[in-house]
Design brief:
two-stranded parallel ribbon, Fumarase C, Chain A, domain 2, 3 domains, binds arginine, single chain, elongated, 6 strands, 4% strand, Fumarase C, Chain B, domain 1, Ribonucleotide Reductase Protein R1, domain 1, mainly alpha, two-stranded antiparallel ribbon
């Protein structure tokens, strides 16, 4: 047990208290962020004349060596230290001696950990964004291949109107677009650097906070030292954006599960992404989609835990805030893995176009179009709705679809029906006539796909500029 703060104490910490208090088990993941922040802090101390040239050289060589040894595995992080900050400082002093003891001048673990988490959140946002972008590329590929793949669109999980597979998947493309905006938004709001806030009230040393902020890629320093050390909004915002991503993935999962069921058979998940049953030999289960749906609860849980942890905390730093890490790391790992698995599952999935089209043909998905046909013949929509309702009832009795009814049978329902009704209610016509912006018609769909293609190739500068 090597602690930074032993001076005031006359007794050693109880072993169990030490372990309960320690965060090294999980904050060890922040070693790279911690070292990066420390190197810039030391450079600034030297620039301001607080440490000497040779002390800076010792500190930065030592910190770089620690980073290298950790990455090579020659230095191990053990629970001998309370947290990653203590670990780095103790090892630095062991390696370079006196200069190491000066690193913490003008700094507290409170602003240090706030910086580490902000840097971590920044790189996590960037990673999740690029995972989503890869997924969008796959979605766009499948969309381009399925502009004319007809399928039933549903409301209340009841067949409603015919759409295309491209159109259906485009809905998810839109969701992931919004998700990516949310991530970028969170990144931009987390653009000020807390280092230099000290424990809570700044410091008496002449620190150059602008320099540190710029060197670390932030827009500038935070403007209130108490807020700096007690703000975890960026963690909560990220967890919230991640929760929404999981909600989208969970809805998509649910559809894949339904589509893959024996009754629907719209898709076939590749063998490499399915699992079997230990007892029922015929089974091919959509476990990946189910797990993604299931893990959604876990990510929501981390958001709720963090909101609850922060609720009612007085300013400024409180140890409660150490609880920000495990859930956040787990949420980021979980979402990253879910997007990767789901994306690969979609990439290898077979879409059974014939089954989808057949399903769109039965179940009266063209009933609205039949009513629109009567409107074009001069019938008021409300009356047309009633007439087609009676027609559907009659079709159900005869076990026929609308297009299977003879013209005589149709005329018994309404004199307005002519031979052109058959073209008007064909699947192709029903979809084709829908060409308003955002609708499934081929022309409208092609325009949207072009917008998506340009969006994915977008040359506009990335917001993710912090390394
Ligand atoms: N391990 C702590 C955390 O993660 C670091 C900050 C500790 N500061 C303190 N005053 N105890 O929040």
């Amino acid at each position: 047990m090597a602690q930074l703060w032993g001076g005031r104490f006359t007794k050693d910490t109880d072993r169990n208290v030490y372990l309960f208090n320690a965060s090294i088990d999980y904050d060890k993941r922040l070693y790279a962020e911690d070292i990066r922040g420390s190197i810039v802090h030391a450079q600034m101390l030297k620039k301001q004349g607080i440490i000497s040239d040779s002390e800076l050289a010792d500190i930065s060589n030592g910190l770089s060596a620690i980073l290298k040894q950790l990455e090579e595995g020659t230095l191990k992080i053990t629970d001998e230290y309370e947290d990653i900050h203590s670990f780095v400082e103790a090892n630095l002093t062991r390696m370079v001696g006196e200069a190491g003891k000066k690193l913490h001048t003008g700094r507290s673990r409170n602003d240090q950990v706030a910086l580490d988490m902000k840097l971590y959140v920044g790189s996590a946002l960037k990673t999740i964004d690029s995972e989503l972008k890869e997924f969008q590329k796959i979605l766009l590929r499948v969309m381009e291949e399925n502009i004319e793949t007809y399928m039933p669109g549903f409301t209340h999980l009841q067949k409603a109107q015919p759409v295309t597979l491209a159109h259906h998947l485009g809905a998810y493309f839109e969701m992931f677009k919004r998700d990516r905006q949310r991530l970028a938004d969170c990144y931009e709001r987390a653009s000020s650097c807390p280092l230099g806030a000290g424990a809570l009230a700044g410091t008496t040393y002449p620190l150059d906070r602008e320099y540190v902020a710029t060197e670390l890629g932030f827009d500038g320093p935070t403007l209130n030292s108490m807020d700096s050390v007690s703000d975890r909004d960026h963690v909560i915002e990220m967890l919230s954006a991640l929760s929404i991503i999981m909600m989208h993935l969970s809805r998509f999962s649910e559809e894949v599960i339904i589509w893959n069921s024996n009754e629907y058979g719209f898709v076939e998940i590749d063998d490499s992404f399915s699992t079997g049953s230990s007892i029922m030999p015929q089974k091919k289960n959509p476990d990946i989609a189910e797990l993604v749906r299931g893990k959604t609860g876990r990510v929501y849980g981390h958001l709720m835990a963090m909101l609850t942890t922060m609720k009612g905390l007085p300013l400024a730093y409180n140890k409660d805030m150490q609880e920000d890490k495990e859930g956040t790391f787990d949420a980021v790992d979980t979402v990253k893995e879910c997007i990767t698995m789901f994306r690969q599952m979609v990439d290898t999935m077979k879409f059974r176009k014939d089954v989808m089209a057949k399903s769109a043909m039965i179940g009266f998905t063209n009933a609205t179009d039949a009513a629109d046909y009567l409107v074009r013949k001069g019938v008021a929509f409300r009356d047309a709705h009633g007439i087609i309702g009676r027609l559907v009832l009659c079709c159900i009795e005869k076990n026929k679809s609308i297009e299977e009814m003879s013209l005589d049978e149709l005329k018994e329902i309404s004199e307005k029906f002519e031979n052109d009704i058959y073209d008007a209610v064909s699947l192709k016509a029903c979809v084709e006539r829908r060409n308003t912006v955002g609708a499934p018609g081929i022309k409208a769909m092609k325009e949207v796909i072009e917008v998506y293609r340009r969006y994915l190739e977008g040359q506009e500068p990335s917001v993710y500029t912090r390394i």
